[in-house]
DNA sequence: CGTCAGTTTGAAGCGAATCAAGAACAGTGG
DNA sequence: CCACTGTTCTTGATTCGCTTCAAACTGACG
């Protein structure tokens, strides 16, 4: 396990925001300063339960989180994934509540940014870039929800997986965490199944199929996309 | 086909909002006055394409609308349904765009409420009930997206259908459009299939199954729920 | 009365779930 | 350093839910 300085960890947030909008020096400064209070959590730690008021937005500095809904009999559906550089548990709507339980899917480090979010909101004119970034982040989260509906509702297993991989690849690209033609995949196949609405076994077989078709290559827990065009053709 | 006065049609909106929050007399007045400019659309009319800026929020006065995503090969997924009394194409987020194509699923009448929405937003202090109502409507729309993900991802056909029926029943209850133990279902089984991620044929068979199990009763296009508890037990 | 959209029914096939068991792997303590 | 443990991944066999295809039926409407 590597040890990172606070600045190194915060870099992924700045990278991500700068991919979305232009930040003034003052804004960059403000953000960096806000990433100080970091909290580290174990895998499976629940940050917030369903329906909790969204009062503690955070940026993910490392690790992956997810929003989860569990049915009475234990079936799980992951609603959305949060990667390093992502904003978690934020809504511009006053009084908004968590639409699912926020869970650490890996060991994760977050920075609480309640005050930063409040400032982006109330002093929007003074920090236009920051305000725009928060708006875009919120919008993208909603787009991901829609993508989940379409995936789960109308795509075959292969298409779902390919679509998710493509989305994750692009998100890593934006956050500057892409490595070569790929990224690090820390999720278990079971978690992927709960994301895609597939059984663990079928996730495994689907991945093998994609590898056979040269759509995906894995080196340890690094996933690589040899040919984006091919990936797009498999995805629906 | 019955002809309704503007006031009669607008009643469903007031009923809905009053179920969500308390409105002052001034607010009630303001809303009623805003429902004047109504537009009537044919089945399959597209109000807005995907990605269009959400600049024209409307209330549904009669008929059902839906947001639709279409894959290249023609597969459709309906993201959300909009019933009489519902707010369509609204987002409090400036610059938000349509997450799907807005389609009339039946003949529909809508009232444009762009100015009302703007006022609820900018004069929130002056119209607290109205502002709260808009916030709640937006929140409920998001909850419905999440429900769609869980349905499509982790529920069996019967559970999906039962869950949707229950949700629709409650929404009719809120809007005051419940009729006895049921409501009017104007959608075709094909449209229901595109909502639930099922084939038309299987929608048909699933409905028959629910009827056999006394979960659902249909009289013409009226759907009735003899026993809500039983419905809940089928839904996951 | 014929047309067309929507519903219903049957038969066959496929995709994914399930069940079960083994292999690879990481972490742990002796 | 290696045996032990538990988690994750992998594989095969079987079952089942749903889709697909095709055709008949129903009802509204011109």
Provide structural commentary:
The structure is a homodimer of 236-residue chains. The first copy, chain A, is α+β, with helices and mostly antiparallel strands and 236 residues long. The first copy, chain A, contains eight helices and eleven strands. In chain A, 46% of the residues lie in helices and 19% in strands. In chain A, strands 1-8-3-6 form a four-stranded antiparallel sheet. In chain A, a hairpin with a 5-residue loop joins β4 (65-70) and β5 (76-82). In chain A, 42% of the residues are buried. The interface between A and B is medium-sized, with 33 and 33 residues. Chain A binds a DNA duplex (30 and 30 nucleotides) through α7.
Summarize the biggest pleated sheet of chain A. 4 strands, antiparallel
Low-confidence stretches of chain A: none
Percent of residues of chain A in beta strands? 15-25%
Shape of chain A: globular
| Order of helix and strand elements from N to C terminus of chain A | HHEEEEEEEEHHHEHHEEH
- Biggest interface, and residues per chain? A-B, 33 and 33 residues
Task: Describe the strand arrangement of the main beta sheet of chain A, using strand numbers.
Answer: 1-8-3-6
Number of strands of chain A: 11
- Number of contiguous helices of chain A: 8
Instruction: Please state the oligomeric state of the protein chains shown.
Output: homodimer
Residue share in helix of chain A: 40-55%
Radius of gyration of chain A: 18 Å
Distance between the termini of chain A: 38 Å
Give the mean pLDDT of chain A: 95
Helix and strand content put the structural class of chain A at alpha+beta
């Amino acid at each position: 396990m590597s040890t990172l300085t606070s600045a190194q960890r915060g870099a992924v947030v700045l990278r991500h925001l700068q991919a979305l909008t232009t930040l003034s020096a003052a804004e960059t400064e403000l953000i960096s300063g806000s990433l100080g209070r970091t909290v580290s959590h174990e895998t499976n730690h629940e940050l917030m339960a369903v329906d909790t008021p969204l009062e503690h937005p955070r940026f993910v500095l490392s690790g992956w989180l997810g929003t989860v809904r569990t049915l009475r009999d234990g079936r799980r559906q992951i609603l959305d994934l949060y990667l390093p550089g992502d904003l978690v548990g934020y809504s511009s709507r006053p009084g908004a509540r968590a639409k699912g339980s926020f869970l650490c899917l890996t060991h994760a480090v977050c920075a609480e940014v309640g005050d930063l979010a409040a400032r982006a909101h109330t002093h929007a004119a003074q920090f236009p870039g920051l305000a725009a970034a928060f708006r875009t982040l919120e919008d993208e989260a909603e787009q991901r929800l829609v993508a989940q509906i379409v995936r789960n509702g109308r795509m075959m297993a292969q298409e779902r997986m390919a679509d998710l991989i493509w989305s994750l690849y692009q998100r890593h690209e934006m956050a500057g965490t892409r490595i070569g033609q790929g990224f690090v995949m820390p999720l278990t196949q079971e978690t992927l199944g709960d994301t895609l609405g597939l059984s663990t076994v079928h996730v495994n077989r689907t991945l093998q199929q994609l590898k056979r078709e040269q759509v995906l290559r894995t080196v340890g827990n690094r996933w690589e996309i040899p040919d984006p065009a091919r990936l797009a053709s498999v995805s629906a």
